[in-house]
Amino acid sequence: RRDAADFSPKDSGRAAAFLATEREARSGPLSSWFLQEVSASEAREAELRAEAENRGPIEADAPGDDDSDGDDDSDGDDDSAAREKRRKRQASKRERQRQAAQGQAQLEAAAAAGSHELGTATDTVEDFVLSDLEEE
Questions:
Q1: pTM for this structure?
Q2: How far apart are CA 136 and CA 121, in angstroms?
C-alpha cells in the first residue's frame, strides 16, 4: 500500500482523503480486526441460542409453591437436613467469633501489662559517632 501511495505524509489533504477512503471501504487493519471480532461474537451468540433452544423451555414453579420454607428444591417440602446443617454452621460461626474475641481480649491484656513494664524502663542515650572508612 505504501508503494501505491502517490503522496507524501506532509500532504495532509491527500493523506486525509486516503484515510477517509480506507475508512469507508473498511479495508484498514483496525476495521478488518473489528469485523472479525463482530463475526466471531455473532457466531458465538448463534451457538448459544441454538443450545438454549435445544434445552427446551424453562419451567416455572407451580402457582401454589411458596419458597419461604428456605429449601432450594422449589417443591415446598421442608428440608430438615439442610436446616440442621445451617443451624450447626451458625453455631460454629458463633463459637469462632467468641474465640476470636477471647483471643483479642488476651492480647489487649498482655499489651496493657507490657506497656506498664515499658513505662519503668530507662532510655539509653549515647553520642552519635560517624564511622570513618578511610581509617582502615
A1: 0.33
A2: 37
